[in-house]
Amino acid sequence: MASPEPTTPRLPAVDVVVATRNRPELLREALESIRAQTYRGDITVHVVFDQSPIDPAVLLDEPGRRVVALDNDRSPGLAGARNAGILHGDAELVAFCDDDDAWRPTKVEKQVSALVGSTALTAVTGITVLYADSAVDRVPDPSDMTLEQLVRDRVMEAHPSTVMVRRDALLGEIGLVDEVLPGSYGEDFDWIIRAAQAGTFAVVAEPLVLVRWGQSMFSQRWRTIVDAIDYMIDKHSVFAEDPRAMARLLGRSGFALAALGERREAVRRAWRAIRLNPRERRALLVLAVATRAVSAERLMRIAHKRGHGI
Fold first, then answer.
1. pLDDT grade, residue 1 (50/70/90)?
2. Could you confirm whether domain 14-212 is CATH 3.40.50.11720?
3. For residue 20, what are the CA distances in angstroms to 47, 54, 89, 165, 294?
4. For residue 118, what pLDDT is reported?
């Protein structure tokens, strides 16, 4: 009697959510990188047009690769747009790609393999930061992807465009993107903290996402940054439990206040950050901007060129 033919493991379908607003050229590059994935399973891209008209040119219906377009029917902004895309799909796995980023061809294939071969709820990869004429690789170590480390350092390597998550966890214990967060600023940080509280991460330790820095609509919305950080501090008690984490957030919000010219409050936050963590370097940057020794914009350019933020 002939032995049965081996069965090919089922490849889970993947939904990709791309929120976009008036960046057609960058969007096309992002979509092409998703279409070119080596993954042999089905990928459906849900392009959510936020406060901008739908562009029918993005639509695609090929075997194993579909691109659908929809309006953001939830709250205006990135958080609402992400949620609209999540709820429009039904695939077992959900991934995100910002409209100004791009994926290397093996990103989905390697990430699905890492995720389905583990008990993790979420998977991340590394990134290559593109800024001006520089390209800097940033790759997370599995030890970085703990709640304690994420709260303390944010771990920018775990960029939202690297995230893949099980749909049942996304709609369950982790939850959707917070649409109340001011200006949707830091919505990815808020979400990844909740993901860390819900379960573990599978890490593909390769830079599989190209991230363009300096394109973000948040890059110099200083007031929104201050309001969002204050909201996060109130929402997550884990920050108050870690002096270094709180010092980092105070340094970041103080920097934004210094950029706004609100010197007294900026300096107050800087000194509070130093008391919590004397090694918090952002506090020194706050003082430099508040005293007009250097501009916030110049410091941002220097940080971005090195593949970092403030």
1. low
2. no
3. 7, 10, 17, 20, 34
4. 95
